[in-house]
Write a structure and sequence with these properties.
- The complex is a heterodimer of chains A (200) and B (109).
- Chain A is mostly helical and 200 residues long.
- Chain A has one domain.
- Chain A has helices spanning 3-6, 14-24, 29-48, 58-81, 90-103, 108-112, 117-129, 133-155, 170-199; strands spanning 8-9, 12-13.
- Chain A has a two-stranded antiparallel ribbon.
- In chain A, a hairpin with a 2-residue loop joins strand 1 and strand 2.
- Chain A is globular and about 60 Å long.
- Chain B has 5 helices and 3 strands; from the N terminus they run ααβααββα.
- Chain B has helices at 15-18, 20-32, 37-44, 48-60, 83-108; strands spanning 34-36, 64-71, 74-81.
- The two termini of chain B are 27 Å apart.
- The chains are: A mainly alpha (200), B alpha+beta (109).
Chain lengths: 200, 109
């Protein structure tokens, strides 16, 4: 995006206009809040109630749930306020994501990458596709923090069921990292929702 | 033999897109994907007639599509940007950027 499309030309203030539409769509805060909530709930349910889908599909499934929830919310908002879903509709993204997930279901991605990266990576990609700087930055920060926390958990001595980083044991520490990622997203969403209300 | 002078960027402006209201409409629709008439009127401070006229011009050039539907007993009209509309807006931004750059270069000479 060049300086004109962010600034003012031909009597139109593009930056203000785009910012207002994005605020009307709640385009930055809603994805952060939905992904944050889904991540936190999935993290807690993993440890408290046990997994209800097979392990390799657990976080990819959480991501799909978040995308479908976002699609329904933005569809309802469009009917209520008259402003559309934006550059890429979440419904279409959910279908593309599901197709991609099924295509690479047995690839190294599931085995080699930590599953928590699925939701934050999806959110980061949404930010880029929708050219939403705040969403990209916030989800990128959440992804970096969760990756660092996960690396610390992996590299810390005694990585087994007796492992304890902060005296909680391995499983609860893992849950704390997962749920913490969700909380970071929720806090970001709440802060940005306040800003959107001022702009809209 | 003299080389052909470079065309001034102002000659590349598309009159359909460059008009202030239509440029604003395309910018809103580029960000929203689609929007209904009341939202466009409210956001850009336009009257019914003014909005309808500009949307017709954009629709004639296939830069947007207009879909009329019903919600219960109320009719609702949505305008959505097309791929051609996004391309035309991007091209306009490029020309405007070139104009600003040229202006700044001339001023610093």
């Amino acid at each position: 995006m060049n300086s004109i499309s962010e600034g003012r030309a031909a009597g139109v203030d593009f930056r203000v206009l785009r910012g207002r539409v994005r605020a009307d769509r709640r385009g930055t805060s809603t994805p952060l809040l939905v992904f944050g909530l889904v991540t936190a709930v999935f993290a807690l349910s993993d440890n408290v109630w046990g997994r209800y889908v097979p392990a390799p599909f657990y976080w990819p499934m959480a991501t799909l749930v978040a995308l479908i929830a976002l699609g329904l919310l933005s569809w309802r908002l469009a009917l209520r306020t008259g402003v559309g879903e934006g550059r890429r509709s979440y419904g279409r993204l959910a279908v593309l994501y599901l197709a991609g997930m099924l295509l690479i279901a047995s690839s190294w991605w599931f085995a080699g990458m930590r599953p928590l990266l699925w939701p934050v990576t999806a959110l980061f990609v949404i930010g880029i596709l929708q050219r939403d700087r705040a969403l990209t930055v916030w989800s990128g920060v959440a992804a970096a923090l969760s990756l660092l926390a996960w690396l610390y958990l992996l590299l810390a001595p005694g990585t087994d069921v007796t492992h304890s980083v902060i005296g909680l044991g391995y499983e609860w520490t893992e849950t704390l990292i997962f749920a913490g990622t969700g909380v970071v997203l929720i806090v970001g969403g709440a802060l940005l929702r306040r800003r959107e209300r001022l702009v809209a | 033999m003299s080389s052909k002078p470079a065309m001034h960027p102002i000659l590349s402006l598309d009159d359909v897109v460059h008009q202030k209201t239509r440029l604003a409409l395309l910018t809103v629709l580029d960000e929203a994907g689609r929007a209904d008439f009341p939202y466009l009127k409210r956001t850009l401070g336009l009257t019914d007639g003014n909005l309808g006229r500009h949307l017709d011009v954009l629709a004639e050039q296939s830069l947007i599509t207009i879909a009329k539907g019903h919600e219960g007993r109320k009719s609702r009209t949505w305008a959505a940007i097309t791929p051609d509309g996004r391309r035309a807006l991007a091209a306009e931004m490029k020309v405007l950027a070139a104009l600003v750059q040229r202006f700044q270069e001339n001023r610093s000479d």
